[in-house]
Amino acid sequence: MLAADLQDAHLMPTPERLRAANIHPETKLATDYLNHFNEAIMLLELIPSMPDCMDDVIGWTPLTYEQHFLQSSYRDKELVLQVYQHAPAAVLRRFHAVIDQMDQLMTAAIDSLKAVGAGPAAAIIAEEAGFILKPLAARAVGVMNAVVDEDEDQMAPASAQDAIDALMTR
After folding, report:
1. Between the CA of residue 26 and those of 18, 71, 90, 170, what are the distances in Å?
2. How confident is the model at residue 106 (pLDDT cuts 50, 70, 90)?
3. Count of alpha carbons within 13 Å of 21, Cβ hemisphere only?
4. Distance (Å, rounded) from C-alpha 132 to C-alpha 44?
5. CB atoms within 10 A of CB 11
6. Helix and strand totals (H; E) in the chain
7. Model pLDDT for residues 120-153, shown as the tens digit of each residue
8. Which DSSP state fits 30?
């Protein structure tokens, strides 16, 4: 299916086709994108017992939704990228707000890990970052699966900056 074909709403892939590709039919988002963060969270959790994982965490870089799929071997990445262009604006606003928080937090955690090097302080930073990132990842899944509404959205942490400040003062 060509991208131009998707511009007509009546030519949008069926909900069944979207579900088969792990794309939510309402939000037009695929949760596979969160693997980018889930791997980083897992590595952060390993740092206290396996400090060698710190190098992998430090090598992490933010990727946009599009960048993630362009670099992936995801079987339906072309469809994912095509329907992303039709995601509802309100969904994208909530989605990008959470992803921006996660990117900022990961970047701050990486900066902190670089500053302290391997050791007990790195373990504390990694644990704290993972602790803060997990509910943000869950919120992102909720947005992507249309289970987070506007009221729940208001219950987000005070700000990503508060979480980052907390990491930096460790």
Report:
1. 10, 25, 12, 41
2. very high
3. 24
4. 11
5. 11
6. 10, 0
7. 999 999 999 999 999 999 999 999 998 865 544 4
8. B
User: What are the angstrom distances between the C-alpha of 69 and each of 33, 37, 114, 138, 153?
Assistant: 7, 13, 28, 20, 26
pLDDT tens digits, one per residue of 25-46: 999 999 999 999 999 999 999 9
Give the whole-angstrom CA distance, residue 135 versus residue 119: 26
Q: How far apart are CA 50 and CA 23, in angstroms?
A: 35
Q: Cα(169)–Cα(167) distance, rounded to whole angstroms?
A: 6
Residues 6+ apart with CB under 8 A from 49: none
Q: Please give the single-letter amino acid code of residue 121.
A: A
Residue with tokens 């071997």: 73
Q: Compute the mean pLDDT over every residue in the chain, rounded to the nearest whole number.
A: 84
